[in-house]
Amino acid sequence: GFAHEELAGDTAEMRGERAHDLGRRRRVRIVVSILSASALLVACAKAFELRVNWTESMPRGLYQRVDPALVRGESVAVCLEGEAARIARERSYVIAGSCRSGLAEIVKRIVAIPGDRVELGRNGVRVNGEPIAGSELLDRDSQGEPLAHAEEGAIVLAEGRYFVMGTNVRRSWDSRYFGPITREQIVGGARPLWTF
Fold first, then answer.
1. pLDDT in tens, 15-46
2. Is 73 left (phi over 0), alpha (psi -120 to 50) or beta?
3. Nearest CA to 163 among 103, 99, 114?
4. With contact defined as beta carbons under 8 Å apart, do 160 and 146 qualify?
5. Among candidate residues 34, 29, 94, the one with its CA nearest the CA of residue 58
6. Cα 116 vs. chain centroid, distance in angstroms?
7. Strand order in the sheet with 153-156
8. Cβ distance 165 to 132 under 8 Å?
9. What was the pLDDT predicted at 21?
10. Contact status, residue 132 vs residue 124, Cβ threshold 8 Å
């Protein structure tokens, strides 16, 4: 009887160790699988020039960076520079990314191209005399911070200058506030693949 109990005890102990080892191996496989899937997603995103837009100024979702069509109505990926980049960083408007400023690209819609007449005033933006609905200047951002804006008045955009805005103009920090952008700031077109 005693030898039988000892053998049974060893078997239970061994089964416990094997179960523990199986659990540990299973957890390691899960972690390796998650890391592998993450690496594959990052590689695919990089290879296919995929970007996620989380801001409210344009439809949220997945965009593919493509060659830009520099025409009115096209969505483009823009790198902010100078004072605009500083404000975006300080107020957390834009996350860290690969632009020279250290920020991520932002997605905006081209509303005016070189040669277009842009009028900016408290009542909004007009491009070649046509008003853009809902484009009134705001005094404060969604965090309650005061918003400086580009100089009011009319300008004709010089060669290589573009006026960009979000499609959700009430929630967009755009050229109304930081002024026209340069062609060099446009790093690609932004084709929506899946938005919500």
1. 667 766 777 778 877 877 676 555 555 555 55
2. left
3. 114
4. no
5. 94
6. 28
7. 130-131, 124-127, 117-121, 153-156
8. yes
9. 72
10. yes
Please choose, from the candidates 192, 176, 194, the residue with its C-alpha nearest in 3D space to the C-alpha of residue 139.
176
pTM of the entire structure? 0.78
DSSP code per residue over 63-91: EEEE----STT-EEEE---HHHHHHHHHT
> Is pLDDT of 128 > 80?
yes
**How many other CB atoms are found less than 10 A from the CB of residue 2?**
6
pLDDT in tens, 94-109: 999 999 999 999 999 9
Reply yes or no on whether the pLDDT at 10 is more than 70: no
Query: What amino acid is encoded at 34 in this protein?
Result: I
Q: Interior CA angle at 37 toward 35 and 43, to 5°?
A: 100
Cα–Cα distance measured from residue 154 to residue 126, given in angstroms and rounded to the nearest whole number: 9
* Tokens, residue 131: 């008003």
Mean of all residue pLDDT scores within the chain: 87
Q: Encoding tokens for residue 72?
A: 């009115």
Euclidean distance between CA atoms 124 and 121, whole angstroms: 5
